[in-house]
Amino acid sequence: ILSSAMVSQPNNLLEYLIEVNLPLAARCAAQSDIKVSADLKTKIQQLLINRSQDTDADLRHRIAVGLALGNLGDPRYEICPGEYGTYYLPPLLSIPSGVYKIGSEEKEADKDEWGGPFVALNEFQIGRFPVTNAEWSLFMKAGGYEDERWWTTDAAKIWWRGESTAIETRNRMREEKVWLDVNFDNLSKIGDAPTEIVKICKSITVMDKIQFENAIEEKFPSSRFRQPRHWSNRAFNNPSQPIVGICLHEAQAYCAWLSAQTGKIFRIPTEFEWEAAARGFAGRIYAHGNEYNPLYFNVLDTHVGHTTPVGVFPNGSTPEGLFDMIGNCWEWTTSTYKPYSIWNDTQMAAISKIVRRGSWYGGTRNIRASSRYWNSPNRRNDYLGFRLVCSVLP
After folding, report:
1. CB atoms < 10 A from the CB of 334, how many?
2. CB neighbours of 288 closer than 8 A, spacing ≥ 6?
């Protein structure tokens, strides 16, 4: 990288590097002080895309290539000027209208997948990739977090003002206290349990309800958030990685901003649309087919340990051309949780929204295309992202 900035003909050096270390060539080309010809940059970008989808290339190499592409710029996304700032137009794939089977009765299926309906859907377009950090960065640069117009629902406005941002954390602490009140005696008997952790747990169990509520209100105050939760974490913030650490309200604000920019209706898919896109009319178990292979997606068994650049698992893509529909990160949908059948989980509140597909730490049960899970609209974890839908018909 140093020498590419020092030589008189950096293009010649990069042409050589392409042959021996493509990711390094891209890293050199991405430096702001290196003058690379437009043709050579385009050549490197296309080589990176081709290599990232080369099924014969080692997974670690494909990941390195994807990260390098993120820093150099991904030409699959069209960059456009807009009334409310520059934006990326994502590559989309059309999903045909028709009747799709939803849910599963396989032995591996969870109870809330049973009894899924047949649903008739109009044609729609869906993002070939989940929304990336590169796309999200333009929303932030355009002042998306500062402009109240994009936060269109009452719940979103409350979150945007910072009045509900601590609800999810406090609810998790309440769940922890309920568990500790029942299980603390067993926990304290574990010989290798850290002494400091045991003390903290004990201090929680001795609090009455009022004391506990006062404690978590002081410890976890509501505040305004103006960036995703993991925006500064290098494990998750490469431009080519999917945006994570955002709640449903943030994702919907992005959709409102992009819709205003383009004059089209961009939104978050319903869970039926998501499953139809992932499984097709054939009703595939996984997005690519019916075979499980941990090298086909970024899941717990793949042992990556964080999100990966979008599109580096070509074997796991759908036959139609959607990437990362399984693994990498869960994706928000706008569907409120309700069971398909008479079975019900009383823990699932009426406001909970369905998320789909499993994530980089998800096990095999959660990564089937029919698998459903739920989350509070306020949750902002390192496994939560989203994918765009663009409506073709009303």
Report:
1. 20
2. 296, 315, 316, 317, 318, 319, 326
Which residue in the block uniquely carries the two structure tokens 């970024």?
298
Which tens digit of pLDDT belongs to each residue from 85-142? 999 999 999 999 999 999 998 877 888 888 899 999 999 999 999 999 999 999 999 9
DSSP for 148-159 reads GGG--SHHHHHH
> Alpha-carbon distance 36 to 73, whole Å?
13
Give tens-digit pLDDT for 296-352: 999 999 999 999 999 999 999 999 999 999 999 999 999 998 888 754 544 445 568
DSSP for 307-351? ---TT--GGGS-TTS--SSSBSSEEEEEEEP--SSS---TTS-TT
- The number of C-alpha atoms within 13 Å of 157 and in the hemisphere containing its C-beta is 5
Question: Is 254:136 a contact under the CB 8 Å cutoff?
Answer: yes
Is the sign of the CA dihedral 314, 317, 323, 325 positive or negative? negative
Q: Report the candidate in 296, 285, 270 with the shortest Cα–Cα distance to residue 368.
A: 285
Q: How many CB atoms are closer than 10 A to CB 146?
A: 10
Rounded to the nearest integer, the mean pLDDT of the chain is 92
Q: Measure the CA–CA gap between 306 and 294, rounded to whole angstroms.
A: 15
